Amino acid sequence: MLYRENGQFKTSYAADQQIFPITQDRWAIIGILVFAFVAVPLLVDEYMFRAILIPFVILSLAALGVNILVGFCGQITLGAGAFMAVGAYAAYNFHIRVEGMPLLVSLLLGGLTAAAVGIVFGIPSLRVRGLYLAVATLAAQFFTDWVFLRVPWFTDNASSGSVSVSNLQVMGWQINNPLNKYLFCLAILTVFALMAKNMTRSAIGRQWMAIRDMDVAAEVIGIRPLFAKLSAFAVSSFFVGTAGALWGFVHLASWEPAAFSVDRSFQLLFMVIIGGLGSIMGSFFGAAFIVVLPIALNQLLPAIGDLVGVEISTAGISHAELIIFGGLIVFFLIKEPHGIARLWSTGKEKLRLWPFPH
Amino acid sequence: MGFFLETLIGGLMAGMLYSLVALGFVLIFKASGVFNFAQGAMVLFAALAMARFAEWIPGWFGLEGSYLGTAAAFVVAGALMFVVAWLIERLVLRHLVNQEGATLLMATLGIAYVLEGVGSSLFGSSIYTIDVGMPKDPVFLFEGTFAGGLLINKEDFIAALIAAVLVGLLTLFFQKTTTGRALRAVADDHQAAQSIGIPLNRIWVIVWCVAGLVALVAGVIWGSKLGVQFSLSTVALRALPVVILGGLTSVPGAIIGGLIIGVGEKLSEVYIGPMVGGGIEIWFAYVLALVFLLFRPQGLFGEKIIDRV
């Protein structure tokens, strides 16, 4: 009754091509943005910001990037953590080596450097496909792990690659408390998400999807695989690299290469697969799921233990977390192999027909 | 010259050990098209089971100090791997038939988490040792030919021998037995195999059992070399380049790939490592595999990829 496009007529091309063609969707997005920018800061305490919201926002950005590559262009990557590391360390180098470099510029330059590295490691994708490519992208992961640990120039001669930044500000706006950090990351995420959404529904996004669905056929109808695949690698790495820079600068403030290990890559891939491949919305769902689940388990398990009168040791909790986390992932994949985004879109379809489904 | 040969032989033996882990990947991929990231966790799980049962069983039955206890532990751990294989097929794979490669990959990662969690809560998470009575002392060969002779680790040699025997047995199993033929048929075409009456589910259980056994052997050998601890599950990451280099569908490929990677790693570490600061083993293997892939995208011995529109 409430959610349907009946009676919404489009009289111009511009109206026909807008991102959200249904009025209710537009209002919902505005509502969500207002909620995220205004209501959340009023409602939430510092712990929530630091433990959940900031990681969620930054990892959503990274998941968006991974989704562009895996979900839209069909190139499985296990090296996303590497591009986060490249983004973070490149931004760090720009930040400390260039006098008076504005924060935003160094973050974006970090992203651009990651994009360049992404193109280099994307070259094998022209020849190697599927699972072979997935393993090949691990080369990027282990190589960057090694570089930032062993080559002192990149880390300003810091021992074991641990670096730190402080005194972050954008045009006089100090980013020093969790609230400001959250707002800063959220603003960047909003811009990037809009960019991703527009890119995926324009010519370049369609090229990516054609390559994903069948690359030989795409090549036959005149799509250049070289351009399509490498541009997907570049855009994806740009997103992931910027997210990595934010993760280092804003969330961690001081970090070492282990922050971007192969586990991070797996985590990002989990996000896009559980959230939904080839769906912008899905990246957010996936990030929320993966960020919140371990924290929720961590809080819930001792409580449940108390309830049934069993004292669970710390080691026991961490083991149980692993088991439940893995089990839930398998469960989700079995129940909804297309991810949470699919549930979301079936829900919307149902709503459109409600209350007369036949 | 002697030093070079020593490095070469060390590399070959390390390569055989990688092949053992790689074999598990190949077996499962061949028969079910699943890229099993849980192989590392299975190795860890099997090694943990072996280490702990070898400790417990002699105590329960009064078999201290005899080989019988170790043998019993091996059998029990093997049985446990069968149970794990059956559970994985029953609870996970059966429900994920015909899903995309990426989904299956993630499902096996989920299995890996579960196995690691279950393994360390059942068997504890400290560092254990496995002692199956392999000789540890090194021997010198060809002392007449080279100054000082060639130093060879007996343990490595036996491990490589076991790996070779295992590969031989598996090849026989695949080529000569009815079950082996059924496995190959399933690998070729699920639907066609099903239509001539091969039970898919049973075949999958069998292949996961075999992979579990291979994981157990790998776990025992790696475990007695490095000690059984959490980091054992990362041997899977070391074995991945071996798998793609040799080809995901080829058993001999896993062996040849293992040898190439083993030798490449050792030689690069010794001859290139000092120039760039060392520790290059792990990514060098991947880059080496990548270079081979650029020329043969399906791996050295993998089935040729044919595209049809």
UniProtKB/TrEMBL annotation, chain A:
One of its GO terms (molecular function) is branched-chain amino acid transmembrane transporter activity. Its main location: membrane. The chain crosses the membrane at residues 27-44, 50-69, 76-95, 101-123, 130-149, 179-196, 233-254, 266-296, 316-334. Keywords: Cell membrane, Membrane, Transmembrane, Transmembrane helix. GO terms for cellular component: plasma membrane. It is a multi-pass membrane protein. InterPro entries: ABC_transp_permease, LivM-like. This is Branched-chain amino acid ABC transporter permease. It comes from Candidatus Accumulibacter meliphilus. It comes from the Bacteria. The lineage of its organism: Bacteria, Pseudomonadati, Pseudomonadota, Betaproteobacteria, Candidatus Accumulibacter. It is found in: Cell membrane. Pfam families: BPD_transp_2.
TrEMBL record, chain B:
CDD domains: TM_PBP1_LivH_like. The chain crosses the membrane at residues 12-29, 41-61, 67-88, 109-130, 157-174, 203-222, 242-263, 270-295. One of its GO terms (biological process) is amino acid transport. Keywords: Amino-acid transport, Cell membrane, Membrane, Transmembrane, Transmembrane helix, Transport. GO terms for cellular component: plasma membrane. GO terms for molecular function: transmembrane transporter activity. It is a multi-pass membrane protein. It comes from the Bacteria. Its main location: membrane. The keyword Transport applies. It is found in: Cell membrane. The keyword Transmembrane helix applies. Belongs to the binding-protein-dependent transport system permease family. LivHM subfamily. PANTHER family: ABC TRANSPORTER PERMEASE PROTEIN, BRANCHED-CHAIN AMINO ACID TRANSPORT SYSTEM PERMEASE PROTEIN LIVH. This is Branched-chain amino acid ABC transporter permease. It comes from Candidatus Accumulibacter meliphilus.
